[in-house]
Every structure is written in structure tokens, then in C-alpha cells.
Amino acid sequence: MRITKTIKKLSAIIMAFAMLFGVLPMLNSEITAKASSNPVKLYSADHMIGRYAYSSHDIYIQIEAGSAATKKVYVHYESYNDEWLDQEAVFFTKLDDNTEIWKATVSGHGLGGEYAIKYEGDGNTYWDNNNGNNYTFSDCLGEANIKSMRLIFQNSENYTIQAAVKNIAYTKVVKVRYTEDNWATWHDVNLSYVSPISGTNSEIWKVTLNLDPDKRDSFHYCLCYEVNGQTYWDNNFGANYDASYSCSYY
Fold this sequence. Notes:
Layout: H1 2-36, E1 40-49, E2 54-63, E3 71-78, E4 84-88, E5 90-94, E6 100-109, E7 114-121, E8 124-128, E9 135-136, E10 146-149, E11 159-166, E12 172-179, E13 187-190, E14 192-197, E15 202-209, E16 220-227, E17 230-234, E18 241-242
Antiparallel strand pairs: 1-2, 2-6, 3-4, 3-7, 5-6, 7-8, 7-9, 10-11, 11-15, 12-13, 12-16, 14-15, 16-17, 16-18
């Protein structure tokens, strides 16, 4: 009788352990799945270089719209004296996929070379640190597939457009759509490949337009990238670009 009770107790204990160790892998799998979904990502960046090692960087950050009721977004960046600081971002716009774009401007003399994105939502903190490599202030593309780039110098007779493009596939078309009469009419012109962007899977493409100097105030443009049957646009978040965007040096 006692032996029977003892066997029953041992069987119950063994079954409990079996259930426990059977549940743990499922719990671990669920946690891993949640951790792999990051609600914050760098979208794109715009850079301007000034005199005396001064620079200004507009950092655009993509947030999942429903990821939290309360949100705080920061660019965590390296300053000139190797100190790490936080620059808070503000809501900028919404994209067609219902994600949010937040914008932070980091500027100063002799900024350090790296930064990461920090997102605090409903008591949780998430990071996008470029898979542990951090971003640099020369990076233009995060989630965006194409981005207009500023040039250091523009010829007064012509207008050169330069684009950063993700190398999604070898065969691709990159073009500019521009107008000189405030979109009453427009023209599409292809950009040409220039070079890879060092340390990234991105490329530089460029074209020089011959514009009417008397129509500069009516000149606007956006960029188009066709690859793998998909079309991606950079229209400056709906505002398009104009001649004032040209130079990165001031």
C-alpha cells in the first residue's frame, strides 16, 4: 500500500517536471519572437556641413503607430568630447503604411562619429543601433530605399541631383521627376550609377539637369526607384525638393 502511494507520488512529480519543461520551450519561443520585433528604426538622415567643423543632421525615425500609448524618441549620439548625449525627437508625419516618422536635429562643432536610436514606450525601452554597429553621421539610409543627398557645391548654370539608393538588385532604374512650372508639366530623367557607398549595401546615382535660370523659383523634384517590380519614391515626405535643397555646405 505504501509502495503504491510512493509510486503514485513519484509519477505525479515526474509528470509535473515533464509539463514544466514542456512549457518552458514554448515560453522561451514566445519571448524570443517578441524580442525580434523592433518597433523603432532609422528611416533616413539628411546632413549639412558648415564652417569650423560645424555640422547639422536631421535624423528621421520610423515608429510603429500602435506600439505604445506614450512615446519618447531620442537620438543617442557621441559628442565632440566623447560624451554620449540624448537629443529628443518630435512627431513629424505619418506614412501611407500608418507608421509614424519622428524627427530629431543633432548639430554642433566636432560631433563624434556614431549614434543610435532610443525609443521609450509604455515603460519599455527599444534600441536601433544598426545591429550593434551604431550609425554614423554619413549614413543616409535606414528603412528608406532611396534618399536625395545634398552636394557640397552646385554650379550656378546647372543643377546636379545625387541619390543614395539601396542595392536591392543589380537591375534597377533610378530617375528624377522634375518641373519648372510648379507641376503644370514635368519631365522624367534617368540618373546614372556613380559608386558604392563604403561600408553599406547602398550606391550613389547622379544626374545633372540643364535648367532655365529664370524658372528656378518654379523648379521642384522628387526621386523614383524601380527595382524587382516595385517602385519607391522620395518626395521629401510629400513636400518635394526645390533648388534651395542643393548644397550641404554653408
